[in-house]
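Ligand-bound model needed. adenosine-5'-diphosphate.
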Amino acid sequence: MKGKEAAGEREDHGPERVLGESISKLNLILSTMKDSRYSDGLMEAWGIARDSTESKIMEERLSTLNLYGLKLNSADTLQEIYELTLDAMEQTLGFEQASFLVVDGSKFRIVGNRGYMSHLSVALPLDGSKGGITVKVARTHKPVLVLDTSRDDDYVEGIPGIRSELAVPVETKDKTVGVLNVESKKLAAFDEKDMTLLQILAWHAATATRNLEMRRELEKRSSQLSLLLKSSTRMISSTDISQRLKTVAEAIRALGWRRVVISVRDEEMEIAYPEDIVTAGLTDEEIEFLWNKKPPGQVWRERFGPEYDRFKIGEFYHLPWSDPWVRKRFSDTTVPSKLEAEAMVDWDPQDLLYAPLRLADGRIVGVLSIDDPLDGRRPTKESMAPLELFIHQAAVAVENALLIRDLNEARKQLKADAELSESKVEERTRELRKSQKQLLRAQRLVAMGELARMVGHDLRNPLTGIAGATYYLKSKLDSKKDGKAKEMLRLIEQDIGYSNKIINDLLEYSGEMRLELGRFTLKPILEEAMVLAKVPKNVKVVCLTKKCPKMKADVEKMKRVFVNVIRNAVDAMPSGGKLTIRSRKSEGFVEVSFADTGVGISKDVLERIWAPLFTTKAKGMGLGLSICKRVVKAHGGTISVESEVGKGTTFTVTVAIEPKIEGGEKVWVTMPESSSLMMKRA
Ligand code: ADP
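Prediction:
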């Protein structure tokens, strides 16, 4: 090498100075001894001296390089490595300009230079048609020595006047990561030895770069692991599933991803609850897009299936957009990336990266999708290693949270069930008590009915006898003026009437009811009822029923209802009063009201008047109103009461003009209260 010559005006120092001095000394000796007979020997001596000087220089240059090698290995930044390398080049080689270029994805960047290269473009495309010597080196991975640039086709003129160039690749393992380049304005300024030196320097720079990267990677890993460790603790400190997922998502985001989506899935890979999907780093717009395009469980089952095995990097699936198959399948499902084009190295904004949250037994409890790596790089097995560890932990955390949720739900359900069954038990007890009461009552009524039938029949005959005898005595006494005897006979007749009513009520109430439907107008039936009720003279009856339609009902039974109500009214007015009977038609119904001016009914009595056997009368049976209710109900109608103590009572019977009674004209109504009113066909 011709350091001094090539460097031109630069100061002599180091090996160049030694070489220069030795050569001039040798030349002097050579010229004075030119003609000497020893000249051959001297020439030989000069050769030896020159060789030994050059090897000494070489040695010195090598030791300079080694020194730089040491310095390079303790460099803390890549830029420091570039600058130290250029310093070493400056110390050991002569040049007009030197540069350090690195391969960055598909580009070639000048990261440091010496001389006047600042005007050169910072990035060169690696696949450009004509990239010059440096690009050739990067492509071929071989050093190139150009002794005369004007004779080299690959040379691209940068700075005018450059005549020779030397470039060597900076290589790690099997790939070229950069190029060291020196250029001179002199022809053949560099030789093979320079090339060797530059290669040694490139090796030092490559080693230093790799070491620095490894150191950084280690630091990154350790900070990632400590971050994940912290997140793991935070993750399990919450029992809430969304909270856990959020912690997981945020931890992953902190590892250098812009967008993270985690969803909990059931066996069908479906999302069971809306809160089971959690995102980190997504905008509202992106979340909406994601939610709308959310693929069904079936699609996710496929994505973890054998068809996708070729995309696997450990547990992760990386689907590169450059793959036509991926592009075809996913054209409308990926959320558009927000990454800047410059921030990307080899990651495509449309690339997909996802992994199952898988438990040790192989069950998948969720899906993790991540996107937009902040370093713009595609994932590798190494870069995904910490995440891989973490997703197993996340899967367990999700499973535990799911179990806790199930447990809580089961607990809640159990509590609700217990409360329900408690109230159900209470309700059932109440119902049981009620039906037990009803049963007892029904049994009593059945027994009473049996008894009533027997007694009724047995009593009817003697009563008929008594009535006949009374009639005879009355006719015999008619001509005589025995007032007392006549009064006695009237009392006997009245009591026969009471007894008959009791027998009739008993028989009526205890037996099955058979409706025989017929048509009638209200007014004449009411008049008959008034006669049958034997309204005394001190009670004035006002019947305000005029235009009443023809209605369909069991005439005799409806008459009995009216008789009962009128008789009760009469009983309520022992010292006389007024009974007003009104009727009116409304929407297919006829409403008949009986308003008396009697004693009225107190509130507590009012609640019980419909119950069978309830009476406030000395000679009452307490069956009248029960029978009324039963008859009216059998017609599909209602009977109600309003009363004011001291003022009077109004009973209102409402029945349909055309009642819709199942069973047609003849209807059987079963025993009351042995069951609720049941009807059967005649
Ligand atoms: P009974 O007439 O045999 O007592 P009911 O079932 O017909 O049986 O009547 C039950 C009770 O209702 C009567 O004892 C009476 O206390 C009350 N009651 C019915 N109608 C009237 C009325 N118009 N005014 C006052 N109390 C009445």
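The chain is about 50% helix and 20% strand.
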